[in-house]
Amino acid sequence: MAAAAARSLSGPGRRALPLVVIVGATGTGKSTLALQLGLRLGGEIIGADSMQVYKGLDITTNKISPQEQTLCRHHMISFVDPLVSNYTVVDFRNTAVGVIEDIFARDKIPIIVGGTNYYIESLLWKVLVDSKENTSPSQRAGDHKEELEQLDSQVLHCRLTQVDPEMAAKLHPHDKRKVARSLQVFEETGITHSELLHRQQEEEGGGPLGGPLKYPNSCILWLYADQAALDERLEKRVDDMLAAGLLEEMRDFHRRYNQEKVAENSQDYQHGIFQSIGFKEFHEYLITEGTCPQETSAQLLEKGIQAMKLVTKRYARKQNKWVRNRFLRRPGPSVPPVYGLEVSDLSQWDETVLKPALQIVESFIQGQMPSADPVKMECDINEDKRSYHMCEVCNRIIIGDKQWTAHIKSKSHLHHLKKSRKQDSSFSAAENLVGFTETQEDSGGTEILRQNKN
């Protein structure tokens, strides 16, 4: 019924169908909800996961199963060769936007789902700058950004300071990827990155974080859970992955794509699918399996499992932080409503997640306001996320007002501050002692002169 209603309200002269976006930390059930909405509303799903775009490591990257993909059409999954290392968010955006337009043209609802929030952000707002390279990653002779990243971070930052001092002041010298990207933009367009961003922000509907909203009728569903419940779920998910054949999958992938790179000492686990959570955590186990004592191998295996669980839980926190800062607290006029759905208790899924999600999206289809209230979080429009701060006490560069405030309250900073004050105090005491001694010497010398005159 909902799918029929969606079709009846689409087409020329009728209300626009919504763009549905599902965000949230890994393990919250985003893919499950996307599939359920797609089946009930006649939608198609667009994956927004920077690791799931690659072929291979299906278990490791937690892709939806082939059987589930046959139930509802999925896009942007398993289409990039695993040896491609220069696939970017710009490449993703350029392809995915065409997919969205095609889905709309066929009177269906695009449902964007994934854990890479900056991929999702690239589809919602005009936030990226195109370079002159319009070819696909596999067609490029080489990626200039990767070449730039090979340079020393200080040299790289110095080069950016010379051509784009405004952007250089907003980027940490050690953030080689962002510094290299800004240099790439200037070298390939002839215009500074900061100037291109200013142009975006000045467009109608633009704001401090980028240009206008691309799809005004957008609906964001945010799945969130109690942290303790989510941590427990994520640990279990890693165990389930192991039971589903995670090790066999990684062994095969290592043999086919990674073993030679490791032998040549050319693997850095910083680009492409090789940076997937899980694969790099098992590096020691994979390269020593069969060549070391069984006891050592078992220890390395357990080390990899625990590392994967820890990094996964840490990544979930990072994802939620991004949602809060870039979606809920986003400044500017063009911010779509975000509706929160708590997923702490999976036994109540239909009642607390699926049913309200359907009601929200169906309201958008009907051109009405949902009965549920969107999540509201205060936004400090004066906060500068790219402000430059130099902590002389810690000898560290801090970027961003919020980060600076957190830094000066941190235990590390307070420890260095206390140590610095103690050193200053000792130095002042030493100076006073030297001054007192010199005074005594001067006084003594004067007294001798007086005695000689008498």
UniProtKB/TrEMBL annotation:
Alphabetical list of Gene3D superfamilies matching this protein: 1.10.20.140, Classic Zinc Finger (3.30.160.60), P-loop containing nucleotide triphosphate hydrolases (3.40.50.300)
Gene Ontology CC: one annotated term: mitochondrion
Cellular localization per UniProt: Cytoplasm; Mitochondrion
Catalytic activity: adenosine(37) in tRNA + dimethylallyl diphosphate = N(6)-dimethylallyladenosine(37) in tRNA + diphosphate
GO molecular function annotation: ATP binding; tRNA dimethylallyltransferase activity; zinc ion binding
Keyword tags: ATP-binding, Cytoplasm, Metal-binding, Mitochondrion, Nucleotide-binding, Phosphoprotein, Transferase, Transit peptide, tRNA processing, Zinc, Zinc-finger
GO biological process, one term: tRNA modification
Chain ranges of the Zinc finger double-stranded RNA binding domain: 389-413
UniProt main location, coarse: cytoplasm
Enzyme Commission code: 2.5.1.75
Chain's role: Catalyzes the transfer of a dimethylallyl group onto the adenine at position 37 of both cytosolic and mitochondrial tRNAs, leading to the formation of N6-(dimethylallyl)adenosine (i6A37). Mediates modification of a limited subset of tRNAs: tRNA(Ser)(AGA), tRNA(Ser)(CGA), tRNA(Ser)(UGA), as well as partial modification of the selenocysteine tRNA(Ser)(UCA). TRIT1 is therefore required for selenoprotein expression.
Annotated family: Belongs to the IPP transferase family.
Name of the featured protein: tRNA dimethylallyltransferase
Organism of this sequence: Pelusios castaneus
